[in-house]
# Entry
Amino acid sequence: MPAHPHSQAAAGSGCGARSGLRIFKDVSKKAKSGLMFVKLVNPCSGEGAIYLFTICLQQLFEVKVFKEKHHSCFINQSVQSRGLVHFATPVDPLFLLLHYLMKADKKGKFQPLDQVVVDNVFPNCILLLKLPELEKLLHHVTEEKEKDNKKHYKYSEKKTLKWLEEKSTAFFSGDQVSTDKEEDYILYAHGVISDYIPKELSNDLSKYLKLPEPSASLPNPPSKKIRFRGCSCRETHTV
# Structure
């Protein structure tokens, strides 16, 4: 006699719980060093990318590699000839969460966050749920309701586009607009943000911002260094 569907579901969730517990045990060992490198999904490409959690999982960083064949660099008082430099810059965890929220939205229902952020390819994604400020940020991209004393979430395209618009305008400070066209800054801000969101969302954001259709020759970017404010993709970024 086949097993009851409810018993199968319970067995599956039990395996998931044990798997999650095992991951957290592994994390606790690695976190003692203060830093932990993990492979998570790149929200733009959907491929794997390396990220860095600080001690106690207080903040998420993306890791970028700068590599040239004939290059060397100074580290303290020594010269490294390999020409390979890793940069770790803070990244807004909501960008990674959007990947899972948009995927879960195809079901068209509210779900607990631990049922949304599930990935067999990148199981360390559950570490995102341990970031202390994440729950306070969710209202930017989700609708929320409470059921059985537990919060359930659903992706909101309207809220997400509004949130991304705010990030686009926060890309530059007011004194820079006086010497350069605001549209140019928003256009390049959209380009930077597009590195952190799926292609379809990037296209929707472009329409939402009423940006011109891309042409073969784009104008040269503003020559100034642009500093992100607190609500940007990264803490700082230079164009």
